[in-house]
Amino acid sequence: MSGLSQFRLLTLHYGFYQLAAALAGGFVGAYLLKLGFSLPTALLAYAALLTCRFGLRLVALSAARRLGFRTTIMLGAGLAAAQFLPLMKAGEPLWFAVWLLIVSLAESLYWPVYHAAAAVTGGEGSRGRELGIRTAVGALVGVLGPLAGGFLLERFGPTVDFGIAAALALASVLPLTALRAIPAGPVPSLRESVRAIDRAGILTFAADGWMASGLAMAWPMVLFGSLGSHYESFGIANAAAGVAGAAAGLVCGHAIDRGERDRCLALVCLALALGFALRACASWSPLAATIANATGAAIAGFYTPVVMSTVYDQAKRSGAAYRFHFAAEAGWDAGAVAGCLAAAAVAAVTVAPSLSLLPAALGVAAVYWCVRGQAAPAPRSLPVADAVTAG
């Protein structure tokens, strides 16, 4: 099976998986607020989830070694579908803990393998275009998902919405069954997973995780409150943002393939800084918050291909893409946990909830420093001892 076919299968899977996330997962923060969580408490819940995910990476390492990459990513996607039953009862401490554990395990299994597969199935000459397509697919399902999710939650409640999302997550497993073995290199031992760390990759992911604490965790809850805590209004605002993100992703992907990554990076980081400022000042008005949300999605459509094209190229050149992303994902968790704690602290002491995004803005400078000039081949990776190759 050709690399292009692998890319198409992975993109088809990604579309279904992200549709499930947009239909229900994108409403998790809003749902927690509806259950009675305050913004600081919900951010602490996210920090707890990410801490648990970080700890469960040892389980993921063992699963990848014993089951192989393809089975591991299928298991992670399947477990993600199981999160919605306990989420419906997350107002009770026991069920909240069960939900947290399932999501943590599912994501610790899924994301390192997914990123490793994306790194090795794409070509460096077309990396920008492929990431632009993936970003556009994610943004387009980010139009349908929020519209449908907001309507279903408002009119029929979480049972129907979460049930459909679970079915979509299970459907996303089907394209993965057609993938051939994923050549993501050897699965490292625990010792080598710590010793053979690509510092540039892990710092890039840590900075991205720190920013995500504001943009992907705090901001959706701020937006939900600004829109009167109505699921449908929240869904419509995110759908409009999805259109902006889709267009931006395609434009930026082609620019990267023309060798303009560093130029795009400077513009994206400037836009990110302005986007943070706009969102931090937008919670006073539903219209202002909606405009800030759409603007931020367009910026993200440029940001994702720029950063991930760099990371995927480094991972592929390392010859051990899974080991690279295993460490990098741990860095993302650490950055996101720290960012959630900082955001929760700000939210607890300020009157305007949108100010909780300000700590995450510090990640812009870190991302620029980590990604700038990284188009050159990465340094030779360290050898992996006591490792086996997973298929």
Automatic annotation (TrEMBL):
Keywords, comma-separated and alphabetical: Membrane, Transmembrane, Transmembrane helix
Record-linked Pfam families: MFS_1 (PF07690)
Superkingdom assignment: Bacteria
Transmembrane segment boundaries: 12-33, 39-60, 67-88, 94-114, 135-153, 159-179, 200-222, 234-252, 264-285, 291-312, 324-348
Entry annotated with the keyword Chloroplast: no
UniProt protein name: MFS family permease
Organism this protein belongs to: Azospirillum rugosum
